[in-house]
Amino acid sequence: MLSRWMSGSSRNLDREYNCTVRLLDDSEYTCTIQRDAKGQYLFDLLCHHLNLLEKDYFGIRFVDPDKQRHWLEFTKSVVKQMRAQPPFTMCFRVKFYPTDPAALKEEITRYLVFLQIKRDLYHGRLLCKTSDAALLAAYILQAEIGDYDPGKHPEGYSSKFQFFPKHSEKLERKIAEIHKSELSGQTPATSELNFLRKAQTLETYGVDPHPCKDVSGNAAFLAFTPFGFVVLQGNKRVHFIKWNEVTKMKFEGKTFYLYVSQKEEKKIVLTYFAPTPEACKHLWKCGIENQAFYKLEKSSQVRTVSSSNLFFKGSRFRYSGRVAKEVMESSAKIKREPPEIHRAGLVPSRSCPSITHGPRLSSVPRTRRRAVHISIMEGLESLRDSAHSTPVRSTSHGDAFAPPGRGGRAESSERVAVIADENYSPADSVLPTPVAEHSLELMLLSRQANGAPCSIEEEKESEAGTPAAGDAEEAGGELRALCPGAGGLGAAQAEQVNKFVLSVLRLLLVTVGLLFVLLLLLIVLTESDLDTAFFRDIRQTPEFEQFHYQYFCPLRRWFACKVRAVVNLLIDT
């Protein structure tokens, strides 16, 4: 029996697991790992496959069976982190956006960051003015198809590519005009470098939004950037806090706390509510890692962070990588022949249709188009298309954080709006990229407020536009989902009251427990015959003798008298 158990255990330890990692160009890397293989081993395999040395900016993302996204921890076993059944599916993504992407040492690193930011642009995470959007799209065209050639690029050729969640004919003409007249002669590497320089100047560069709610129940997005902590709400940036002003981050259940110390010793605490405790913990861990990476001078300064307090056990977490300054210093020492880069070119892409010859989105304002679906199937297949760190949820206008459905597939209807020289209205579109020319305010993605979709795929244009009245009603539903109003406010207040009551009950429980322990110790000291050195020393103190004879003995006689009176009363009756 023992030998059979030992042989079975050895087979489990030697078992190999298949892993598929989806790369930034939508190609896949497949490998096998042992049961005890750490995350660092898998990451090193990927970086060797990509010939990547400046690897500290990147990470591996996966989603668990509860549809919650995670970053793979390199110090822990891959198999133990993956709660899903093998084979495992993951994604290779940018985890820490470079503060200055143009300053990266190697072209291969800049190319991978370029692919990530291009995805951000398409999925609506990188928001910009129409003029900036046209320039960024023209850089992508130049990098992927080269110089304009009238023989190869007929009129309207830019409409064959999709760079943003929505297009307009005016924007397409502007993209083609810039590509024809301003970018001729630029190599792919030069176009990608110029793209990075422009993207870096945008306010939402490096933003990976986490949907939350504030204390009033209003939808908000929290994000960590190379420069600090950002809160996006409504159609503007509500808070921007530099990393050196953030003193502490912690979470309790679904509640996330950010402690800020600003000038003149002004201290504030920002409180937000995540959709689930798992999402809140992921938000907290992302904040700890980003602050350590961008703020600290050396990795030796990294400390283990705990979210616990007097009444909550909490979690402990420690960032295990190098910090940004160390990465830059290490990159400066790289001396090798530049590795060959195999650019994707015009290979069809499943998640970033900017390099596909797919149909252009309709430019008719306020029409419905089924262009996005949310996959809620088991497994990790849908992760390939988005770098969001939010939990994957089924969309519901009634509850922004409804539990995931168990159906095979759910679809979300999204509208397409014209890019015009007028202020952007959140009712016109749920994918606000780019915004109007003179509108500098940030626009948020309502699809993330309802749980970011994990799969965005092109579908055939099977539906025509619907009446404007239906669109207005649907727009109103989206706005109500984003701004719950009094109902959300009441729910938030009720949650605050419940947490306060629970804290008071915990305090009372701890107090009663301490008093009970002290009572037991007092009884042992006064009534027992234990003659240990510890008890003997306490009994011989003047304070204890005074307490014993002046307070305890009279109290004992009074209590005994009352007990006898009650017993006599019972006997008499």
From TrEMBL:
Compartment list: Cell junction, Adherens junction
Question: What PROSITE patterns is this protein classified in?
Answer: FERM_1, FERM_3
List, alphabetically, the GO terms of the cellular component aspect.
adherens junction; cytoskeleton
Q: Which domain of life is it from?
A: Eukaryota
Which residue ranges does UniProt annotate as crossing the membrane?
Answer: 504-526
Q: Which InterPro entries match?
A: Band_41_domain, Ez/rad/moesin-like, FA, FERM/acyl-CoA-bd_prot_sf, FERM_2, FERM_central, FERM_CS, FERM_domain
SMART domains registered for this protein in UniProt: B41 (SM00295), FA (SM01195), FERM_C (SM01196)
Q: Name the segments for region: Disordered.
A: 384-411, 453-473
What keywords are assigned to this protein? Cell junction, Membrane, Phosphoprotein, Transmembrane, Transmembrane helix
Q: Where is the composition biased (Polar residues)?
A: 388-397
- Function of the protein: May be involved in regulation of cell migration. May regulate cell-matrix interactions via its interaction with ITGB5 and modifying ITGB5 cytoplasmic tail interactions such as with FERMT2 and TLN1. May regulate ROCK1 kinase activity possibly involved in regulation of actin stress fiber formation.
| Stated name of the protein | FERM domain-containing protein 5
